[in-house]
Design a protein that fits this description.
This protein is of the alpha+beta class. Helices cover 19% and strands 32% of the residues. The protein contains 13 helices and 51 strands. Helix 6 packs parallel to helix 8 and helix 10 packs parallel to helix 11. It is globular and about 85 Å long. The chain starts with a helix and ends with a strand. It binds alpha-D-glucopyranose. The site of alpha-D-glucopyranose has 9 residues, from loops. Alpha-D-glucopyranose binds next to loops.
Length: 799
């Protein structure tokens, strides 16, 4: 029979009344009579950190998620004491702390509640492992919605769902399956059109319940560690995501080729096969920038080795591929084969780099090479060693990028699919078990990889790809959504996953186009590439045992569709690169769900399919077989159908026709979309002009174009070109102003402007207040003109 003491010990425990308050600059400490301390830190006017300790003592403050470059500073911090509560105020929010139970309520300056504790902080002592299971419950208000949370394969709006963050190898996962490959414990709440965010920075297994168990409660908890969360106030979603992204960091600009099209397969070998695939692209004139070598290039799956039978001279192959415009990307997994004759194994053994079990022996697990040991990437010494292992591959052989896989870590033949929970980790000098280090293991592996690849690629930029991720991993690498399936449902999943990842601060993301497991038919493959050219990372990858998945594997019609869309991606590269620039500069997600685009329109709160590619292109994929088109919702504003130029007024649903060769795609009226010529790979052609597609609107719209050398670091010294265009349309006039920044000289001298939807016939054109001869600017019908790239004002008047 369970005794009263056991119930007391095992049940939830709660803070009681506050007995002490103390302030140390930006930190406030509220202590309760039963030993709970709430530490509130003001980071910015709208970014507040809440941290709770029991038994008066905090754990050492350390996190892998937080960026070194986080912006700090606020304008006001005041604390008032009332009879029943404390009130902490900044210029943007007020925080009420109930003296009787430590409950927190966060309000805007007009006293509108943004977020309030239900039970608030509570905990359960963990008898098996020590420490606490830490819990937080908040009120879910009527009409409140929830977004974000990384790679969840669920409806974009998470209301009614429960999710778990425990990075897991999830081969052929399904809709709503939990957990998946990433742990990004960050959500955006939307209450009465005001947005806020919560980032629960705890690397243990975390759970979030969005009004699933109880209709009016949203809660989150972790198997250990501290209740430690950041609150971000919007009121716009953009501000929330920007603040989270600032806190957890952004990557550097990738080399432009990394935004091109990539082709992969498990596995292309031997060398001849790789070359045949590469020349298959050139022969058929399908642009492609990178080709991948999956595990079979290695000698018996030993990382940092080459199978010399299949790849007798890797350097020669890589050089030849490069001459043809292909970058070579190789896979590296974390498991090191137990083999006393293998140098990587020997080095790790000699230096004590492998993870150990609690009682001393090394942790062993089966992966592709059989029994393996696993470096402890949470140890800085191990990371430095690991980074240096890339020297031969990158500096000597010329590999251009690295793909880290199975880094959850994935372990075969065990039900948990991963390392034992008692495995020990250094955790950068905070020794702990795998329970705490699991979710960051893959992140620390790619961090080490990134640092190594970056060092040996210098002065060029590195490219690294990961499967596992925790918040902050976006600082180091791109990611893909793991082993998906060639089904229509997975096309839907890919669409929501990419939007969700972008909303979660991680924009450089893509899916295995066409599906990893099983084989798509031509129609599904075509629909997938139509969507995927709008995903920041664009790669076809598939498992070896289900037939071919090259763009030409499904007959001529599909090959032509594939080519057409990849060509469109290459044309849009300057637009996409500018999106990337805005992402790292302002934390703006590269893809925007409709709710992000216009949270005030409640129609958008439950939409899953439509999204903005950047800020000015609206896309809605066709996700069903045999479709001739689909219904979609248009957010506010005017939208040009990219294919027909028909203008649609937003704020309504509409049927859009899109047979197999089309995807519904719309350009915001007023936008100026930059385009490059179609190239077979980035850098193939010398750019002689920049095409600007100008979509007339009555009114004002701003557009920007960011460019630089497309690789290297000179852009950090000011060698970039940022052009801001301000379009102003009137009934019979169009004025485009250009504002320039940066001192990179673009290789082209002129713009070719192509007009869409001009309501008048061009009569006169003035460039910087001087009338020009229409022949000199090559006026072509009413469609296009050519002007020097340095104008500050272009004034076009109708006849
Ligand atoms: C994992 C990866 C997949 C890769 C395979 C073999 O399943 O997710 O992309 O092809 O391992 O390396």
């Amino acid at each position: 029979m369970i005794t009263n003491t056991e119930i007391e010990n095992r049940g939830n425990q709660y803070p009681n009344h506050i007995t002490d308050f103390k302030q140390e600059k930006d930190k406030l400490f509220f202590t309760t009579q039963n030993g709970v301390v709430l530490q509130i830190t003001i980071l910015r006017n709208s970014t507040i950190r809440f941290r709770y300790a029991t038994e008066y003592a905090f754990e050492p403050d350390f996190s892998y998620a937080i960026s070194e470059n986080v912006s700090l500073g606020y304008d006001k911090l005041s604390v008032e004491e009332e009879v029943s509560k404390y009130i902490v105020s900044t210029t943007k929010v007020k925080i009420h702390i109930d003296k009787s139970n430590l409950n927190v309520r966060i309000l805007d300056v007009e006293d509108v509640v943004l977020s309030e504790d239900e039970l608030g902080f509570h905990w359960e002592e963990n008898y098996d492992y020590g420490g606490n299971i830490v819990k937080m419950s908040k009120v879910c208000h009527t009409g409140e919605s929830y977004y974000g949370m990384g790679d969840k394969a669920s409806h974009t709006n998470l209301k009614g769902k429960r999710v778990n963050n425990w990075v897991t190898d999830s081969y052929a996962y399904g809709k709503d399956q939990e957990p998946l490959y990433k742990a990004i414990p960050f959500y955006v709440g939307l209450k009465e059109n005001q947005a806020y965010g919560i980032f629960f920075d705890n690397s243990f297994s975390t759970y979030f319940d969005f009004a699933n168990e109880k209709r009016n409660v949203t809660s989150f908890w972790a198997d250990g560690g501290e209740m430690n969360y950041y609150f971000f106030y919007g009121p716009k979603m953009g501000k929330v995501v920007e603040a989270y992204t600032d806190l957890t960091g952004v990557p550097e600009l990738p080399p432009l080729w990394a935004l091109g099209f990539h082709q992969s397969k498990w596995s292309y070998y031997p060398e001849k096969k790789v070359k045949d695939i590469a020349s298959g692209f050139r022969k058929r004139k399908i642009p492609c920038d990178a080709i991948y070598l999956d595990i079979d290039y290695m000698e018996g799956f030993r990382c940092f080795t080459w199978d010399k039978q299949h790849f007798p001279d890797p350097k020669k192959m890589i050089d030849e591929l490069e001459e043809d415009g292909f970058k070579t990307i190789t896979m590296i997994d974390p498991g090191i084969k137990i083999d006393r004759d293998y140098w990587v194994y020997q080095e790790a053994m000699e230096n004590g780099y492998f993870c150990r079990r609690a009682d001393g022996p090394h942790f062993k697990g089966k992966v592709w090479p059989g029994d393996c040991k696993f470096p402890d990437f949470t140890d800085p010494k191990v990371r430095a060693w690991w980074g240096d292992l890339y020297k031969e591959m990158i500096a000597d052989l010329g590999v251009h990028g690295v793909w880290n896989d199975m880094n959850e870590p994935a372990i075969m033949e065990v039900p948990t699919k991963t390392a034992n929970l008692d495995v020990r980790h250094d955790y950068d000098g905070h020794p702990c078990s795998h329970r705490k280090a699991h979710n960051v293991y893959g992140m620390q592996m790619v961090r080490a990889t990134y640092n190594g690849v970056k060092k040996f690629m210098f002065p060029k930029r590195p490219f690294v790809l990961t499967r596992a991720a925790y918040s902050g991993t976006q600082r180091y690498c791109a990611t893909w959504t793991g082993d998906n399936v060639a089904t229509w449902e997975h096309l839907w999943i890919a669409n929501v996953q990419m939007q969700r990842m972008c909303m979660s601060g991680y924009s450089f993301v893509g899916s295995d186009i066409g599906g990893f497991a099983e084989q798509p038919n031509g129609e599904l493959f075509a629909r997938w590439i139509q969507l995927a050219i709008f995903h920041p990372f664009c790669r076809v990858h598939s498992s070896g045992d289900h037939g071919d998945q090259e763009p030409w594997s499904f007959g001529d019609e599909i090959t032509d569709i594939f080519r057409k869309f990849v060509e469109l991606r290459y044309q849009l590269l300057p637009y996409l690169y500018t999106m990337f620039y805005k992402y790292i500069k302002e934390g703006l997600p590269m893809l925007q769900s409709l709710v992000f685009y216009d949270q005030d329109d409640t129609q958008t709160h439950f939409r899953t399919d439509e999204f903005l590619f950047g800020e000015q292109i609206l896309v809605c994929p066709v996700q069903e077989p045999n479709a001739q088109g689909r219904r979609m919702y248009f957010p506010k504003g005017k939208w040009y159908n990219y294919w027909t130029e028909e203008v649609v007024e937003g704020g309504k649903e509409k049927w859009v026709s899109a047979e197999i060769h089309l995807i519904p795609m719309f350009i915001k009226a007023g936008a100026i979309i930059p385009k490059y010529p179609v190239q077979q790979y980035v850098g193939e052609k010398e750019l002689t002009e920049l095409q600007l597609d100008v979509y007339y609107t009555e009114g004002i719209e701003n557009s920007i174009v960011y460019e630089d050398q497309q690789d290297g670091y000179d852009y950090k010294k000011g060698r970039y070109s940022l052009r801001k265009f301000r379009l102003r349309g009137k009934e019979n006039e169009l004025i485009i102003q250009q504002f320039k920044d940066g001192n990179f000289i673009t290789p082209y001298d002129k713009f070719k402007l192509t007009f869409h939807g001009l309501p008048f016939t061009i009569g006169t054109v003035e460039v910087d207040n001087e009338k020009v001869n229409l022949k000199d600017i090559k006026l072509n019908g009413n469609n296009s003109i050519e002007v020097g790239k340095d104008f500050t004002e272009l004034h076009i008047v109708g006849k």
